[in-house]
Amino acid sequence: MISKVIKVLNNPLTLIAAIILGVFCGIFFGQTIMLLEPLNDMYFSLLRVCAFPIMLCTIAIKIGDILDEKFKHVFRKWLLYSLIFVIIAAFIGFFVTFIFKWFITPDNQTRAGLSTMFMQSYTDEFIELEVYRPDSVSNDTSVSIIDLISQLIPSNIFSSLTNEYILQAIIFFIIFGAMLARIEKEKSQIVTNFMKTIYDALYNFIKKLLVFIPISFFITTAAIFTDKDMTKMLSSVLNYTLVCCLAILAYTMVSFFVVWHRTGKSLLTQIKLLKQTLIVSISTSSTTTTIPVVLDEVDKNFNMDISIVEAVLPIGAVMCSTGKIVSTASLAVYATLIYSVELNLTSIFIILFTSILYSIAINGIPGAISATMLGIVLQPLGIPIDLVSVILIATLPLYQGISTFSRIYSNLAVVSLLSPCEKSNFNTAAIIGSHK
Q1: Per-residue pLDDT reduced to its tens digit, 88-113
Q2: Cβ(396)–Cβ(367) under 8 Å?
Q3: Class of residue 271 by CB neighbours under 10 A (exposed 0-12, middle 13-18, buried 19+)
Q4: Contact yes or no for 373/293 (Cβ under 8 A)
Q5: Residue 424 gets which letter from DSSP?
Q6: CATH says 71-184+228-430 is which class?
Q7: pTM above 0.85?
Q8: Where do the domains of the chain lie?
Q9: What gap in Å lies between CA 170 and CA 312, rounded to an integer?
Q10: Lowest-pLDDT range, 10-24, 145-159, 198-212?
Q11: By the 8 A CB rule, do 411 and 246 touch?
C-alpha cells in the first residue's frame, strides 16, 4: 500500500494536479488551506537543515581534489568559464527586458497606481513615488568593495552556520578543506570519513522527504493565491514578471545548449534526466537543497567526471548566482522605465556591473533583507529604492523557483565544459527532441 502511494506521489502528473488544485483551493478555500502552512514551513526547514551540511561536507571533501596538481588547470578554467557565464547572465537580463520595454513601460497613471498600491500594501504609511532626481538620493545606500569583501570572512563560524550566512560558511569550509588536504593522509582520512558518513545519512533522509514534494507544491500554490496583496500585484506588475521570467528562461536555454553540445543529450532528454532537480529547485527555491539532488542525478545520468562535478558544482552554484543576476538586471531596467531614467552607455554599464556585484553581496540573505540592499544597483542610477524594493519583495516568489533552477543549470553547463564528456549518438536536426 505504502509503495503504491509513493509511486503515485512520484508521478509528474501528480505534481501538475497538485498545482491546479492549489490554485482552486487558494481562491475558494484560502483561509482553511492557510492552516496547513506551518506544516509546509516545517517541511522546508527539514530539507534545508539536511541540505546545508551536505553541501558543506561535499565542498570540504572535494576542495583537496581541486588543489591537487592534476586539477589546478581545471580550477583556472572554472574561474574563466564562470566569469563568462556571469557576464552573459547580466547581458541577457538587461537586453531581454530592454527589448520588451514597450510591453512593460508604465504610463503616468500606472506609475501613480503602482506607488499607491505597493506602498499602502507593504508599508505602514503612504510613500509618494518620487521623480528621478540624482541629487535627492542619499549616499548612505552605497556599499564599497571593501565592505563586500569583509562580509565574506566569518568572524565566528558557528554564528555563520546558525544564521545561514551561506557564503561565509562556504569560505570557511573551502579553507578547512584546503588545510585538510595538506595534513597526513591517515589523520585527514578520519575527518573525511566522518563527513562522508554525515553526507550519506542526511542524503538518504532527503530522498525520503522529497516524496512529499507534490503536497508541498499544493500548499505553496494555495498560499500564493490566498494572498490578496499578491493578487493585486499579479494584475499590476504581471507584464514585468513575465519579461523577467522570459529573461531567466533565455539564459537557461544558453546552459541547455552548452550541455547539449558537450553531452549530445537533447533538451527534452536533459529535462527528463534532471526531473528531480527541476522539481526540487522550483518547489523549494533553495540552492542548498537542490545541490545534493543534482549531484546524484548527474552521477547517474551524465557521462561526466564525477570527481570534477562534486568538486566544482557546489561551490559554483553558491557563489555564482546567475539567476539572481538576470533578475536583478531586469529589475534595474524596469526601475529606469518607472523613473524615466535615460539609458546610455554609462547607465548600461552601471546596471551590468552592479547587478553582478549585488548578487555577490546578497548571497544567502533572505529576499526581504536583500531588497534593502538594492542601493548597490539603484544608487549609482539616482533611483530611490523604496518602491523598487517593494516590487522585488512582491514579485520574487513568482520567479524565484525558475531562477534557482537556472542558477543550478548554468553551473552544470560550466562543469560540462570542464569535465570530459562522452557524447551520446544524436541527430543534430532533433536538438529539442528525445533520443531513441
Answers
A1: 999 999 999 999 988 888 766 666 65
A2: yes
A3: middle
A4: no
A5: P
A6: mainly alpha
A7: no
A8: 71-184+228-430
A9: 12
A10: 145-159
A11: no
